[in-house]
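Section 3.1 - Work completed
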Amino acid sequence: MFPADVRGYAQAAAVQDTKPPIAVFGLDGTYASALYTAAAKTSALETTWKSLTALAEVFRKDTKLSVILNAPTLSSSDKSQIIQELQRHMGGQDKGDTVKNFLKTLSDNNRLGILQGVCEKFATIMGAARGEMEMGVTSAAKLDSKILQRLETAVAKSEYSQGKKLKVVSKVNPDIMGGLVVEIGDRTIDLSVSSRIAKMNKLLTDTL
């Protein structure tokens, strides 16, 4: 059962193409789907997408923002100021105030902390709507754009791409220690150093 605020925000779509083309999970996925439906019903998908892309860039540049939004001590005044600042970063792209109203919904229900996840899930939905397939590339350190391009080209020629246009999302996770973890569709190609060490440890444990 969806939360009441989500049901109210995205009422059952009367037209098929207002429904998200794919299912995304988690609370952030539920809200992202609701936002997609609301934006589609008002023909505001592109402006909503641009606004969320701008917000995603803010999260990428300011790693402390997610911590701030998750703070349980945020007052109503704090939330209002945060929303105003986020609107400023959207640069007037939010035609019809679709995202502004959505941010207020998150704020009223103490859900601003899931905004970064909503941006990511909305990107996944939009990619599917455009016939794209997201390819997540996780590395221990930031990869050069040329390396990412070569990797995208190689995967695009393989069966993994299913003939779809790839959208590369690069992430950094020092815990993998080295190598790469590539996620595309429902498949994961784990070429990380941490994975190799784990397999080696298991082999040694099983042998002993």
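Second construct:
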Amino acid sequence: MLDENLPTFYLRPSSDNIKHHASVLLSQYGDEAAPAYSLRHPDPALPGSRNRYAVALYDSYHPDILYGEVLLIPEWTQPSLSQEEIRRNGGIPPAPQPILPTSFVVQLYNPDQQILVQQGVSKWSATPQWVFEMPQQSFRQPSVSSIDRTQSDPTASETTPKLRFKWKKDGKLSKDHVCSLSGKNTNRDGSKRKNREPDITLSIFKNLKEITMYEPNLSRIEMEDPKGLEVVLLLSAIVIREVYNGSMRETFNIPNIPRRLSGSETPPRKNSYERTRKNRTEILPSQAPPQSAPQAPPLRVQTPNTRPPPTDPRSQWEIDAETARLKKQVEREERERRHAEHAETKRIKKMLEEEARTARQKQLDVEKETARLKRQVEKEQRQAPQKNNNTTTIPSLPARPTPNFRPNPHLTGLNLPQPPVQRPHSSASPYRPSGHPYLQTPGSNNASSSVFFHRPPVEGRRVSSKPSKFLGLLGHSSDHQSGQRLSKKQSAVF
């Protein structure tokens, strides 16, 4: 602070905790700093605030009162036509770079006037300086004449005398800036001789943080609008601080070049064909959603595009770069999709060939086994006749001689059972081996009888099949019981 009695403005962050807002505090005569103005910048997140700089000065106690504002849109470099740079940037022309403007306009309200501030270089110290002019008369003279009312405002008239002001950097290594009123020319003829009044210092911008007004010198200025001069001094000092002494990318809200807009390749995403094929394989038939009736497509309501059209080459370059990136991405995805389809077709073809090879191998195994079984059957058929020829037939035993017994005269009256008639054995009858001499022929229930103790059958006499009850040996006459029980043996001799 140069002097606590002089009016000093301080730039401080806003009390509403908004990053792009600030407060201008005023302190005079040693009093505590109090809010005097509110400084506002557009929201950097809005699309309309990109690639430009804007600041407005409002009243601190009445936020609707706007004193003045500055809008600064930079110029841009022309796109490079060098093929080397385009190739290094991945086939996309390099992004246009902003050019620091050499002038800006301060728009004042009530009365409305535009103050042009131009940047230059001092001839003696080669330090930058900013020059602007303001009219001495800003308001119309009160008049009842209708002709006076039709005339233009004094601020727009070329005949209105103007005062020349200049912001100058106080040394190459210093951050202080001094605003002064250029001295008047004392030559009556208007020649450019060294007959000029010295410059009058009006304000000092100390270390780009506080602005001190020289109130005694301000009273020497012959102007009708000192408030307008104060607003112009504040806004021009803020623009010099933020635009010409700050980062151009942050000042003009230039977004960083994303990686996808540069020449570097983005990492390949998972192919949509693979995702679709995987989703189809994961859905089972039982889990498939039921098919509903086809519905009419919803009506498309065309909504107006809220994004402002591009007004600078930088926005147009971003659109072109994004279009080229999306085109490359579509081509890459199409290429990956064709590659995936080719790989899938190759895999399916290989699988089918493997299945066909397996089927052929199985068929060869079946034919080989069939041939082996066929040879085995033919071999067995060739060996079967040899076995039949080698088998020996056992000769039948000769028939036993049957002794002829004479009938006993004492037993002729007895009805004795007759011995069975022995039939001669046929040579054609097969040999039945017997494990025991007393085994009976299958199917016969008669008891075994001796050949020597049976009487021969008497010719001409009918032999009763039923046993006699003469001796009371067999009291049962039932054929069934006589067939199951054995009769008592009788001797043919005794």
